[in-house]
TrEMBL record:
It is found in: Cell membrane. Pfam families: FtsX, FtsX_ECD. This is Cell division protein FtsX. Residues 54-158 form the FtsX extracellular domain. The chain crosses the membrane at residues 20-39, 179-203, 224-253, 273-293. It comes from the Bacteria. Keywords: Cell cycle, Cell division, Cell membrane, Membrane, Transmembrane, Transmembrane helix. Residues 181-300 form the ABC3 transporter permease C-terminal domain.
Length: 301
C-alpha cells in the first residue's frame, strides 16, 4: 500500500497540469450531461402536467359563423344532440368527460378574461358560441375525435391545445438533443484526455513496469496506481459537476423559475439526486475503462 500511494503521488506530481485539465474537462462535460438529463426530466414533467389537462373544444355555429358545418344559422337542438351523441360514443372520450358551455357561461368567462379591456363593452352575450369541452382517456389520441366531429352539421371549429403545445415541446426536445450531443462530445474529449494522461504516465515508467513484471508483480498491482490516479481526477471532476448542478437547480429552478411560473411542475431534489448518481457512475467509467485499455500494452515483457 505504501508503494501504491507513493506511486500515486509521483504520478500526480509528474502530470499535474494534465490532471487538472482532466478534472476541468470532466467537470464541464458532466455538468452539461447532468443538465441534459434534467432537461429531459423537465420536458417529461411538462408533458405529463399539460397533456393530462388537454381538452378538445368544439364550438358550435352562430348566425355569423363561417365554419364548413354552418349554414348561416344558429345550431339547432337536434344538431347539438347529434354532436353530443358522437362525442359520447367515441371510445377515446373519458367517462364523464363531456362538459357543455352555454352562451351565458361563455360570456361570463369572457368578461373575466378581459375585465380590464374596453373590448368588453363592444361584445354581447348573443355573439358568444356554445361549446362542448371534451376530456380524453389518452390525450395522445385526439385526432380520431377531432376528425369525427369536425364535419358535423352545427360545428363551427374544433380546437385542441396540442396544436399550441406540440411546437413548444418540439423546441424543448431539440434543445435537449443538442445538450446531449454537446455533452457526448465533451465526454469523448474527457475520455481521450484521460487516455493520453495515463499513456504518458505509463510510458514514462515503462522500464519500472517491466522490472515489476519480471519480479512477479500482478497486472492489477501494476495498474492500480494509474487507476487510482484516473479515478481521483474523475471523482474530483464529478463532485464539482454535481455541486454545479445542485447550485444551478437551487438558484435557477427552485428559487426563480418555480416561484415565477407556478403553473409548471419543475424538477426538484429527487430528479437532481438521480442525475448526480448517473454523473458519478459515468465519471468512474470514464476513468476505469481507458486506464485498463491504455496500460495493457505496457504489461508485456
Amino acid at each position: 500500500m505504501n508503494y501504491i500511494l507513493s506511486d500515486l503521488g509521483i504520478g500526480l506530481k509528474r502530470n499535474l497540469s494534465m490532471t487538472i485539465a482532466v478534472v476541468v474537462t470532466i467537470w464541464v462535460s458532466l455538468s452539461l450531461f447532468g443538465s441534459a438529463l434534467l432537461a429531459r426530466e423537465q420536458v417529461d414533467l411538462m408533458k405529463g402536467n399539460w397533456y393530462d389537462k388537454i381538452q378538445i373544444s368544439i364550438f358550435m355555429c352562430t348566425k355569423d359563423s363561417g365554419g364548413r358545418g354552418c349554414s348561416g344559422a344558429e345550431v339547432t337542438t337536434e344538431q347539438k344532440n347529434r354532436i353530443k351523441q358522437v362525442i359520447e360514443s367515441s371510445p377515446d372520450t373519458a367517462p364523464e368527460g363531456v362538459f357543455g358551455e352555454s352562451k351565458k357561461e361563455a360570456f361570463e368567462q369572457f368578461k373575466k378574461l378581459y375585465k380590464d379591456s374596453p373590448i368588453v363593452s363592444t361584445v354581447t352575450e348573443d355573439q358568444m358560441q356554445e361549446s362542448y369541452r371534451v376530456k380524453l382517456k389518452d390525450p395522445q389520441r385526439y385526432q380520431n375525435l377531432v376528425s369525427a366531429v369536425a364535419g358535423l352539421p352545427g360545428v363551427d371549429t374544433v380546437q385542441d391545445l396540442r396544436q399550441y403545445l406540440d411546437p413548444l415541446f418540439k423546441a424543448l426536445n431539440g434543445l435537449q438533443v443538442g445538450a446531449l450531443v454537446a455533452a457526448a462530445l465533451l465526454l469523448v474529449a474527457a475520455l481521450m484526455q484521460i487516455s493520453n494522461t495515463i499513456r504518458l504516465a505509463a510510458y514514462a515508467r515503462r522500464r519500472e513496469i517491466g522490472i515489476m513484471r519480471l519480479v512477479g508483480a500482478s497486472n492489477f498491482y501494476i495498474q492500480l496506481p494509474f487507476l487510482l490516479e484516473a479515478v481521483l481526477a474523475a471523482l474530483i471532476g464529478a463532485v464539482l459537476a454535481c455541486g454545479t448542478l445542485w447550485v444551478g437547480v437551487y438558484f435557477v429552478v427552485m428559487q426563480r423559475a418555480a416561484e415565477t411560473f407556478r403553473v409548471w411542475q419543475w424538477v426538484g431534489a429527487a430528479e437532481t439526486f438521480q442525475a448526480t448518481l448517473i454523473m458519478v457512475v459515468v465519471g468512474l467509467v470514464l476513468a476505469v475503462v481507458p486506464t485498463f485499455l491504455t496500460t495493457r500494452k505496457y504489461l508485456k515483457v
